[in-house]
Amino acid sequence: MTSKDKGHYAKKHPTDLKLDIEIAEALKKHISNGKISCAAAHKVAAELEKPPDLVGVTLDFLEARIIKCQLGLFGYQPEKKIVKPAEFISPELERQLHERMSTDRISCISAWELAEELNKKRMEIASACEALRIKITPCQLGAF
């Protein structure tokens, strides 16, 4: 959800969905001024061995805003996103990105996995996607 939805993130979930107290308590330690970084949210998911999407749902119930996307796509001030299109993309990287695409998109998790496989920074993969006009979605935490 966008910043204009602030204070209403929980509304995107079914009313019978319940808050995971264990995740909520762990997240509260990292939330400041109603915000938490993508990295901190993923750290909680890893520490608790919980899926990132469940952590994202919990953040929505806590009405916490995710900032500083690790792909540079959102949560940075004042520009909102910091990722810039790559000036050069190797044919191999372009091929691998296209292989992982579903329609005109690649998932956040696929971008992360490719970065790890190629020993590249996540932002480098996002930068290649920007240059190739490949959308990255869905977010592992459910932010987009």
Protein architecture, described:
- This protein is mainly alpha-helical and 144 residues long.
- The chain folds into two domains: 3-67, no CATH class; 91-136.
- It has helices spanning 21-28, 38-48, 52-61, 91-100, 108-117, 122-132; strands spanning 35-37, 65-67, 105-106, 135-136.
- The strands form two sheets. A two-stranded parallel ribbon has the order 1-2. Strands 3-4 form a two-stranded parallel ribbon.
- The protein is elongated and about 45 Å long.
Rg measurement, Å: 16 Å
Number of DSSP helical runs: 6
Structural class assignment: mainly alpha
* DSSP strand count: 4
Largest sheet: 2 strands, parallel
* Overall helicity: 40-55%
End-to-end span in angstroms? Answer: 7 Å
Side-by-side strand order of the widest sheet:
1-2
Detail the poorly predicted runs: none
Name the overall outline.
elongated
- Strand residue content: 5-15%
Question: Any idea how many domains?
Answer: 2
Mean pLDDT value: 93
Write down the secondary-structure element order: HEHHEHEHHE
Features:
4 strands; 144 residues; two-stranded parallel ribbon; two-stranded parallel sheet; single chain; mainly alpha
